[in-house]
UniProtKB/TrEMBL annotation:
The name this protein goes by in its record: protein-tyrosine-phosphatase
GO molecular function terms listed in the Swiss-Prot or TrEMBL record: protein tyrosine phosphatase activity
Coiled-coil features, chain-numbered ranges: none
Transmembrane regions: none
Organism: Candidatus Criblamydia sequanensis CRIB-18
Taxonomic lineage of the native organism: Bacteria, Pseudomonadati, Chlamydiota, Chlamydiia, Parachlamydiales
């Protein structure tokens, strides 16, 4: 089973939405061998549900965000196969936890899998309005679909031509 961890700043907007979007897309694509979770670099919101505005915007798209915020722990570098950062600031913070090249190789910018937003930062919508939350969801949906496509491509290579 592959395990993925989505990471943003406080784990109440971007990363819990990415976690749920990835889960929904994995289920839709019959990819059952994945575990997804999320965390925040900071510990300000540990135990809280995702931001109400993000939950509402996500629910309007059929995504129900119910995970509780947790802070990133160094041990996650051992327990997850892939760690996906919402932006380059989070990416650099994650690299500070990684002591080895193997640990660093697990850490990626989430949009590196996006066909449309490749390499862009997913902006923190916390101080914005509904359009900011919608943009973040657009970016997350595209990036997570790119991630699904990447895994499906990996599986087809492993299984050989059909």
């Amino acid at each position: 089973m592959k395990s993925l961890l989505f990471v943003c700043l406080g784990n109440i907007c971007r990363s819990p939405a990415a976690e749920e979007i990835f889960r929904a897309l994995a289920a839709k694509n019959n990819l059952t061998d994945f575990k997804a979770a999320s965390a925040g670099i900071g510990d300000w919101y540990v135990g809280h549900l995702p931001d109400d505005r993000m939950r509402e915007a996500a629910q309007d798209r059929g995504h129900f965000l119910a995970s509780r915020a947790q802070a990133f722990k160094k041990e996650f570098l051992d327990s997850y196969d892939l760690i996906l950062a919402a932006d380059t600031e989070v990416l650099h913070d994650l690299y500070k936890f990684a002591d080895t090249p193997q640990m660093k190789s697990k850490i990626h910018l989430l949009t590196s899998f996006s066909p449309i937003y490749r390499g862009e930062n997913i902006p923190d919508p916390f101080y914005g309005g509904r359009k900011d939350f919608d943009l973040v969801l657009d970016m997350l949906e595209d990036s997570c679909q790119g991630l699904i496509d990447y895994f499906k491509n990996q599986n087809s290579k492993k299984n050989g031509p059909s």
